[in-house]
Model the fold of this input.
Amino acid sequence: MSKVNRRGFLKGALLALASLPVLESLLGQQAQAAAAPEVDKTKGMAKTLGYVSNAAVDCAGGKCGPKFKDGSKCSTCSFYKKVDDKWGTCSLVKPGSVASEGWCKSYIKKA
Ligand code: SF4
Done:
């Protein structure tokens, strides 16, 4: 390898290493922005299971029936997988995102 080529290679390698944190940051932001639109509450399992976006408000006063317990919400459900602070995915209610503050009749508290 000639001296110029070696220098060019080392310079490129150093630039690539220096850009890794920037790439990681950009990819992290993309992952956070990747939350899909909320599930359609008028269709499919969301409708069948009575999914609501904000359990504290939508289920207040017994509006969600006797299965609802105060404080239960998607973010503490065993079917929930967090995407960001407000949204996640549910293995039962899909396609789309469910709200971290949401709830449905299949709620099971995470162990
Ligand atoms: S099963 Fe759990 S995570 Fe899915 S919508 Fe119902 S309460 Fe939310």
User: Anything to note?
Assistant: The two ends are 59 Å apart (CA to CA). Strands lie at 80-82, 87-90, 98-99. The chain has a mean pLDDT of 84.
